[in-house]
Every structure is written in structure tokens, then in C-alpha cells.
Write a structure and sequence with these properties.
The chain is an alpha/beta fold. It has two domains: about 30 residues, no CATH class; about 250 residues, Rossmann fold. It is about 30% helix and about 15% strand. The protein contains eight helices and twelve strands. A hairpin with a 5-residue loop joins β1 and β2. α3 crosses α4. Its EC number is 3.1.1.31.
Length: about 290
Amino acid sequence: VRDALHGGRRGEGGFAEVSAPQFLALLPWLGAHPLRMGLEIHVAESKADVAAHLRPYLESLSAQSIADRGKFVVAVSGGSMVGLLASALEGLDTSQFLFAFADERFVAPESDDSTFGAYQRGFFSAEDGSQGEVIAIAHELDLSTAAIDYERRLREALGSAEGDTVPQLDLVLLGMGPDGHTASLFPGHALLQEKDALIAPISDSPKPPAERLTMTLPLINGAKQVAFVITGEAKAPVVAHVVGSSTEVAEELTYPAEYVRPTSGELKFFLDEGAAKELDASLRGVGS
């Protein structure tokens, strides 16, 4: 710390000028971890309790977004999150919510593999649309065209023309697999390096079905907030690695979930005890 303060040049007013690496070195001394600002880690006793932790978070964030922009734009994921989210949102007025999908399997809505279909059966069941607006993929198109179409409709809903800056979602809710994949971004896949498309087609998913659409990292990391919702002891080793990585300036990233680092937004983790089993004790409850 002393070296950082006294080793740098003196700027206007006699204040020390420090380089970016020196600044990062100072943060732990100041009580702030390099990437911990805005980071929250919530650990619930059980999978069922995760929904109870999500409820006040969603209630507060959606109220603020609706006050600011007239709607709450949230991207959701499939799998076990469907039931957790339905429970967390039970009784909450979601009429001004705009639901999009962080990723979707390229199948018909009636398929058991369809994330939209799972939400339609578990939450989007109101015929009057009182659950809010839903942007579903056009599965009747070919895969590449469906990706272009989904990005266009998402931009339109957010008032962002093609070629504009990345539209900002209020929240992206992500799960994570035991292999560290999130959305449909898989280990070693070229889509981890995608810089231009906001919605990308994938035809070689290592997890069936092979054809999917996924939000890319520029869109995910451009969100105001990103929250991982992860349960299960099988994911504990990867969770510990990913959460630990989120508090560091890592030179090499191992898992796709590590690539999720909001540019100017905040990162949250909602875990059950199983998923948090190998988490460093110092990280439990950070920011919450």
C-alpha cells in the first residue's frame, strides 16, 4: 500500500497518481475486493428456500425498473429455475414484466424440451396476459433466421434499433450446469468469443437437443443486474471456482459462467447449501 501511494507520480494538488494494477492492489486494503463491488452471495438452507431469497430481490428490482422505464425486462432460464421462479413470483403483480429467454431449445412449445413450454405450463398460463409480456422464439423459422428475428424483436421491445448500442436488460437470471455452462454457452465453444450478435444460433450443443438459441456475452454482461440461481451439491466444486473467480481479476477463465462479468451492472448468486458446500467461508453472505 505504501509503495502504491508513494511510488507513483504526483498529480494536480499533490495527490498520488497510481496505475490500474496499483489501484487493484489497494482495493483489499480499502475493504473492497477488485470485483466485489455490487457482488451479493445469498445462501439458502434448501432449494425451496432459494425462492424465498429471490422474492424480495425480484420485488424490489422490478418496482424500481417499472418506476424508471415503465416495465421490468427480465431474461429467464429453464430447468429447475422454472419452478423456483414461479414460486418466487407467486402473488406478485407481473403485468408490467417483459419476459425474454436467456436461451431456448429450438423445439416446438409443446415439446417437453421447450423452456417456453415449461413456463407456459408452470407460470405463463393466464389467458388474459396478466402475467406480463413474453417474447418467445419463432420456432417455425429456420435456426439462423429465428436468431435474427429474436434479436430484432428484443431490440424493438427495448426501443433499440439495429446497430445501436447493446440494449440493457434489467435482469438476466442464469442457471449453471455441472460443467460450468450457462445459458447455451458451453466450455470451449466459439460462441464464448462472439462480439457482434446479441442472439446466436447454436447447432452443435453438447447437451441435447443440439439446436438452440442463446443470448451472447455482450447482451448478458450489458444487463443492469445478472443473477445466478444454482442448486445442488453436484455443482459445488464449480460454484466455488466461479464465485471465487468473480472476486478476482483472472487472466484465464476455465468455465463459461466465469465469463459472466457485468460491464457496469451488478452480479448476484442465489445458492442452496448443496451448491455452496465448497464455497470459501469468507464469501458467504457477501453483500447480502
